[in-house]
Design a protein that fits this description.
The structure is a single chain. With 164 residues, the chain is mainly alpha-helical. It folds into 2 domains: 3-56 and 149-163, no CATH class; 59-147, no CATH class. 80% of the residues lie in helices and 0% in strands. The protein contains 9 helices and no strands. The protein has helices at residues 3-10, 14-23, 28-39, 44-56, 59-76, 78-102, 107-112, 120-129, 134-163. The longest helix is centred in the last third of the chain and has 30 residues, at 134-163.
Length: 164
């Protein structure tokens, strides 16, 4: 059962479902906006707005508490210790050159390109790994989410036109 089916089963309003999907680490905008437009027939502007808002909901807590939360989980669970070690090492290995060169601005395209393993959640992890402060990370991630929302909305509307 996917997120949309679960929400339909629970009887959640479409807007709440879209916010929840957009806030999840795997689906984010890439899942929320197509569901909003294709399944719930929300307008592209409404789908975009809800998708961006939902995707930004976890950003502030992640930026503020990822360090302390990951440390706590790593101390309490071997699984989380391995997971966070893998995630942080992978992020550092794959993106250190870009962050060394551009600093917080490197977060913008990293979040804005709506591909797997990119997005707000991973952008928050990258900000943590590279020591980007909230002051610089949040605006870069928010702008990246807004740009990714435009791309996903355009692709969703284009796909809908092609299918129907």
């Amino acid at each position: 059962m996917d997120a949309r089916e679960l929400a339909d089963t629970l009887g959640l309003p479409p807007e709440v479902t879209v916010l929840i999907i957009a806030a999840t680490p795997v689906f984010e905008l890439r899942g929320a906006i197509p569901v909003a437009i294709g399944h719930y027939a929300l307008s592209p502007l409404r789908a975009y707005s809800l998708g961006v808002l939902g995707n930004l909901i976890p950003v502030v807590p992640l930026l503020l508490f990822l360090e302390s939360g990951s440390g706590l989980l790593r101390r309490r669970s071997r699984f989380f210790d391995r997971f966070f070690s893998w995630l942080f090492e992978r992020t550092h290995r794959n993106h250190s050159e870009r962050f060394d060169r551009y600093g917080a601005l490197a977060l913008l395209p990293f979040v804005a390109v709506p591909l797997p393993v990119t997005g707000a959640w991973t952008g928050c992890a990258a900000a943590f790994v590279f020591g980007v402060s909230f002051r610089y990370a949040f605006p870069a991630i928010a702008l990246g989410v807004a740009l990714a929302g435009v791309v996903v909305t355009a692709v969703s509307v284009g796909g809908q036109v092609l299918l129907f």
